[in-house]
Structures are given as structure tokens and as C-alpha cells.
Amino acid sequence: MSEATGSREFFTARTVSEALAGFRPARRSAVERVPLAAALHRVPAAAVASPSPLPGFVRSTVDGYAVRAADTYGASEGLPSYLDLRGAVRMGAAPDVTVTPGACVAMPTGGVLPEGADAVVMVEYTAATMPGTIEITRPVAPGGGVVRADEDVAAGAALVPAGRPLRAPDLGLLAAAGVTDVAVHARPRVAIISTGDEVVPSSTVDLGPGQVRDATAPALAALVLDAGGDPVQAGIVDDEPGALTDRLSEVLADADLVVVSAGSSVGARDETAGAVAAVGEIWCHGLAIKPGKPTLLADCGGVPLIGLPGNPLSALVVFGQIGVPLLWRLSGCDTPPPLPVTRARLSRDLASAAGRLDVIQVTLADGVAEPLFGPSALLSVLARADGYVVIPEPATGLPAGTEVDVIGHR
Amino acid sequence: MSEATGSREFFTARTVSEALAGFRPARRSAVERVPLAAALHRVPAAAVASPSPLPGFVRSTVDGYAVRAADTYGASEGLPSYLDLRGAVRMGAAPDVTVTPGACVAMPTGGVLPEGADAVVMVEYTAATMPGTIEITRPVAPGGGVVRADEDVAAGAALVPAGRPLRAPDLGLLAAAGVTDVAVHARPRVAIISTGDEVVPSSTVDLGPGQVRDATAPALAALVLDAGGDPVQAGIVDDEPGALTDRLSEVLADADLVVVSAGSSVGARDETAGAVAAVGEIWCHGLAIKPGKPTLLADCGGVPLIGLPGNPLSALVVFGQIGVPLLWRLSGCDTPPPLPVTRARLSRDLASAAGRLDVIQVTLADGVAEPLFGPSALLSVLARADGYVVIPEPATGLPAGTEVDVIGHR
């Protein structure tokens, strides 16, 4: 364990900004094809090109009459144009009439523009006063009331870009274009290891003296799911020398990211650093974030590893700030999607140290963010919070009344 | 179909505010028990009480020495207190020593406070200069350096409230308290019906003239999933009289919410209104929202129904404004979780009508929101948008430069 002590001395703390800019593994999760119905929030590995133009035909965007635009020039309420009604276009079918000069055809919204026509007059600017004749009371320009066959998407154009998680409208557009499956990055596999002699599985009914159920692992799994990852519960490792190194070697074979929630004692923390040093290269040990200072980041042969602080609140805060962006990056997305935010005013002054990122849990009521204080070891603080406020690294604090973004816990 | 025409004439448009305040079905989805690992974002049907206090024992929050606080009073760097070291507490185990006057015991963070001690002095304020003796250089008050056995949660206190979707930290707290499953509202079943003679399944490879693949249904399914619902694809119904009424009767037997995306033609829209009037009571036909005016809301024997406009963009906008809050309410949550928001400045003036809610798709770059215009029938507008800006009902527009919340498409 001399290595552990050694590494603690050797590595200085980094800031969160430094970690986000500098701890950027090249690794990306594998690429797999998934059906469209399973592609929500998945990240395309490449832009998806449209196999054909959309809508694919000149399509009416209004209910009205297909015309030759020139036949409507000069039409007005006082002096309408009169056109011969030659029939009607049916939805989802080829028109069986053509529009010759002086003629028109009834058009439903979404219908195919018949041959000979170059515009659709809205029904509001027409009247059917005599059988077989339509009065036009307003002119329409060529192309009016229709969309071109490739106006929505040209053939070969990108329907969705690479690297941005797919959203509901994307799935609609892909479906419209006839795309039935997409090549996306696999959900990154995140191995979650808990350590600490006091930690027992959360399924444990009766606790022994000093035992605590594992709270961090189930909460981390939820954060991983929310960030598009696939959490793999890799169990609890006790503080026995070598046990963590062995477990790390096992999970590294099949993980895109490894998260170790350290035991809370100094012994367990040293154990973690020593074990990690045996399987990878420690990038930083200590992060300028509160809560969350005893964080460790390492590169284990290309697989990033995050050593989280022992107390669950700190662990979840650090994972949110460091692990979530990393997870998106592993799945091919360099810009994580925006967070749920509510704007509010601080109820009181908040102190911070320059160069340190502070994450303050708050409750929200009537536009006021009320900080929740108390020992940072209390999980109930997190569960009671409506969200959190971040005090940026350069700031030395925020005065009461400051308008802040409260980032919601999802 | 005279009913259809009748209902279109009869019902006046409502505002979105009126719909949100007035169209509030009493229905809630059934209650089911799910294991904790499947409970993320689910809505508890009742508050969950803690079966026991947390952490359950007087727990050290620091690394240091368990002491009787009175033995440290007056201690300073210049004049330390000297205490006999009687042993160490091990993690996850009952202490096998007691702290008598003048004595101390080494404590790891998270350890059980031994009998006789009432505080823990942080290791930073101690020195081990002679074997068997610890120097204390700063006094500690009773209760210092520890949390009470019920400080996180008292036995019987609520761990999580009813009606608020469970978030990652909640799962951690529930796990810590030994809760292994939770009674939550079932995901509301949302039957999605598409109508329109021109609409064909999105799996269709070769389109006939005038046909379009169903884009709305897959996109709606994604919005339903995001809002905690269970989408049930109920297929495409053609514009044949009676066909929609029959399908509605079938799906109403087993749905918490029914969504009908109307065909785009006026004929298909009339068909929808007529069919809905045959199975329920129309609450409004026409909504003061742009895009999305031809929206229909109905109560079908306690099951709410939303008739969406024919064009996919309008349909998705209306479902986001009306359907999503309704869906949360059906699952027992009256306050939907906050939305992903980015603040930005408008690049140009936006017009609106007072009393109407306008939803404008925008792209985002460098803190500027650039509205995307174009025929509202274009799905690609939605897929290109980074999010949308809402112009509230009372406003007649927003000038360029206004700071707005851009709500992200998830």
C-alpha cells in the first residue's frame, strides 16, 4: 500500500474545468444497428442520409383548388376569376385529372398536385356559387399553397447528424424517409464497484453494527441510465489488500467506464488509489469541487475510471459533473443534451473559494432557491433537494438575490 | 357525419391555459409494485416511510479520535490535551472498546461511535507524538464530528413523497433504508391511432403516388416514453365512415389516454370529430396555439382523448404542450418535472396574437436563438431545431434581443 500513499502525495488536485478539458479518453463504445423504435436518445455513429426526397411529390399544404397560377392574376373580391371545376384529387392516390388553362381541381391538404397545375388557392379565397364553376377572389403565385417534392429533405441529404442523441422529432423524420434502423453507438457499459468493509448489499434486511446498505450503487445506476449508459453492478469489494485490484482487472475486460465508490474511511480511500495504480495510470487524485474533493481519475489501458468519494451525496455530485459528460463522450456525443433548469433567486449568500466548483443542493418555492445545509453525509439532503446550484470556479460566492439556474435532479 | 360538422360549428376554440386548467381528468393509472432498480422516474402512489432510522447508529463523519468532549475543552496548539489511545474502531463492526475519561479511540469516517464518547476530533487537530498518547490541539463540542442515529431520516419519516417522479438520489435513499420495492403508478397506456387515406405504415418500402409514411406515430411514441407513458401503436385507420369509431371503441377498453393524429385533409378532420363524438364528449375543438389550431380534446367515459392536427410538426407541438402534462397527471404527478432549458437571445422579432400560444422552433448558436421558418408541414424543421421558444398567451410578440428560454427537444 506504499504505492497508495505515494500516489496521494504525488498527484495534486485538478479543477473540474481541467478535468473536463484534459481527461478525454479517445475510446468510443461499439457501433450497433437498432430498429427505430429502440433508437430514442441513442447517438448515431454517422449522419443518416435520406434514401429519397421528402415529401416525394408536389404536395398541397392547404385545402383548396389546384390551378395554373396565371389564371388567378388580377382576381379580387370585386372581380373574381371563374374556373371550370374538373374534379377532385383523392388523398393518397395519383390525380386522374389534369389542369388545363381556365380549369381547376379540388385539392385536399396533403394531396398530389395534378399535372398542369402550379399552385393551390386556399378554399377561403374561393366560392362555389354555380355548379361546375369556382370563383377565385385572390391571386396565387406559382408554387403557392404547395411544397416541392424535395422541399422537406432532398435525396441524399442528412436526416440526422452523427453525434447528437436522437430525439422524438428525429424518429418521425427518419420514419417518414423509410429508414427502419440506425447505426448507433452501443450504450456504454459502466461497471459500478462499491468498496468498504461497512457496505452491505442494499437487499440486506437486518444490518449488523456499523453496517450501511449500499446507497451509492443504485443511485449511480440511475444516473448512468439517464445519461444513456448501461449500468453493470459489479458488487461490493471489501478492504482486503488485493481484492479491489483483482475485481478491477475482471471488470476492465468488458467495460467502457469503471466507477468505484470508495469506502468512507481513509484506509479504504488509500486502498482504492493503490488498486487503481496497479491497473492503470492515475490522471488526478483530488478535484477542486465541493463536495467531492477526494475524487480520483485514471486511465486503465484506454478505459477511463472514476474513483468517487465515499459519501453518497459527494459521489453523486461528482458523477453528475464528471461522469455524465464522460459517458456521453463515450457514446459518441461531445455535447451532452441540455439539463432541466429552473431560474430562481438565491434566498441567502453562498460562500465559495475561487478556483473551486461548488455544488449546492436547494429547494425551490415561488421562484426562490433555498440552500439545504447539513452534514454532507446525509443522503436525505439530496432526496429533499429540488435541484442544485453551481457556483462557478472563478467566483468567491454568490450574494442573496442572485438569479441562478437551478439544475433539476432527473 | 352531420355530427362532425355540427361539432365543428358548435365548439369554440379554447386557450392552452384553459385546457391545462379545465381539461383535467380524474383518472389515474393503476398502482403496481416495482423493484427499486425499475423505479427510476416512476411516480410513487403514496409516500414511502422509512422502516428504521438512518444511519441507524451514531456515525463518525470524519477521520479522527472518538473522545469525551469535555476532555478537549481548552485544548490549543500551545497547550494540547493529552489522551490515552485505547484502540481503534473498525469499519462495519461494533466497537470493542469504550471511552473513559482521559481516553480516546481512533475512528474512521463512517465508524460507530464507541460507548462513553460523545464527539470525534478530526485527525487534522491531533498529533500522535508519543506511543499510546494522542495530542488534541482544538476543542470539540458534544456531537461534533458525528451524525445522530436518526439524523439522516427518523424511523417512520417519509423517504420520498407521493406524486413526484423518483430520481437517482431517491433510489439511493430508499436503498439505504432497506426499501426494495415501491408502489408506483403504472405507466399510463397511451393508444396512438393514425388516420388518413394517404398514411401508410413507416415500414412501407415503396410508396404509391401521394402516399406518406406515418411519421407522427413513432415520434409520439418517443414523447410518450419520455413522459413516463407506455405507447401502444394502434395502427392506421382509413377515412372510411365508421372505421375510426370502431377502432376507438376497441382501444378505449384498455387505454389511459387515446391520441388520434388526424389525416391532413378537411375530410379526415371531420371524420375524426364525428367518430370522437360517437364515443365521448368533445371538450373543445380548436385550440389557440400556433401551430396546432385544429386540436380536439374529449372525455371518453373518463379516458381523455386528444385529436391532433394532421401535420406532424403541429401534432408534436400540441402533444408537448397538452399531452405531456396530461400524461404526468394520469401517472399521479401534478407537477411535471422541469424541462431542459438553455437561455438565449432572440435573433429577430417574433410576431404573435394576444390570447394565442405560439411555439417557435429555433436553432441555438453562441447564445443566440435563430427562429426556423418555412411551411409548417416540414418535419425537417423540427429535426433541425435545437429546441423551441414559447410566446406566452398575453404577448403580441417578442422583440429581437429578448432573453428567452429555449426548451430543448429531448
Describe this structure in words.
Two copies of one chain form a homodimer. Chain A has 410 residues and is α/β, with parallel strands linked by helices. Chain A has four domains: 2-30 and 186-330, MoaB/Mog-like domain (Molybdenum Cofactor Biosythetic Enzyme, Chain A, 3-Layer(aba) Sandwich); 41-53 and 157-185, no CATH class; 59-147, Molybdopterin biosynthesis moea protein, domain 3 (Molybdopterin biosynthesis moeA protein, domain 3, Beta Complex), CATH 2.170.190; 341-408, Beta-clip. Helices cover 21% and strands 30% of the residues of chain A. Chain A contains eight helices and 28 strands. In chain A, helix 1 (2-10) packs across helix 6 (266-279) and helix 4 (216-226) runs parallel beside helix 7 (312-330). Chains A and B meet through helix 3, strand 14, strand 15, helix 4 and helix 6 of A and helix 3, strand 14, strand 15, helix 4 and helix 6 of B.
